[in-house]
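Margin note: ligand = fructose -6-phosphate.
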Amino acid sequence: MKIIICKDYEEMSKEAAKIFSDRIKNKKDIILGLATGSTPIGMYENLVKENKEGKLDFSNVRSFNLDEYLGISEDNDQSYHYFMNDNLFSKVNIKKENTHFPCLDENEDGSHYDKEIEEAGGIDIQVLGIGRNGHIAFNEPAEELNVNTGKINLTQSTIEANSRFFESEDQVPVSAVSMGMGSIMKAKELVILASGKEKADAVKYLIKGDKVSTDCPVSFALLHPNATLIVDEDAAK
Ligand code: F6R
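Resulting structure:
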């Protein structure tokens, strides 16, 4: 795994945007794997800026998001649809029909999303944030991790962490649909971002680099042949 340690969040965001911008310029019909959360916002801001300056074209870009809550509507301002529109999609020239989010079918199965990604040609580059407990997407530390996209019941620690975005904890959705570990690992390139000291435990796994554990799902990225970790000094501590 390639590791880049940056001074702070701004520098981390610029580094990540540089990689995404470069890949988009080199493959016009690129397929991006996208994440929500506070971590990638700065990267999206940098990409929006480049698009506004006429240096980055999203007209043929396609995207697949990692996850979405269940039980809240797309126009709820806490939904991941809303987040992506607000932070990226409405600000660049990406076509709405080229943007995708996971969902469940009538049997509560989400693996059709993995087929859709595969049929599109596979994700070229995937950005990942890390949960304080080492989760990626909604793959929480557990004895076993999902391979494919599917339904997830959120752990209490994630509900508590996410409650900062809702008026009260009882408004936080208790389930979500998320890409599985296999879905994520199939991306041709991973860019993992972490900022802040509360991510340091999970980052330690990646920097030590000698063990993977389902107790720290992001550690599976150590098995990926083309993964880059970009962290700020606090997360690297
Ligand atoms: C979001 C996602 C989550 C976040 C993680 C970190 O699509 O998949 O795994 O990346 O919870 O969240 P932040 O960036 O808010 O610290």
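The beta strands are 2-6, 31-34, 62-65, 67-69, 99-100, 125-129, 150-153, 175-178, 190-194, 227-232.
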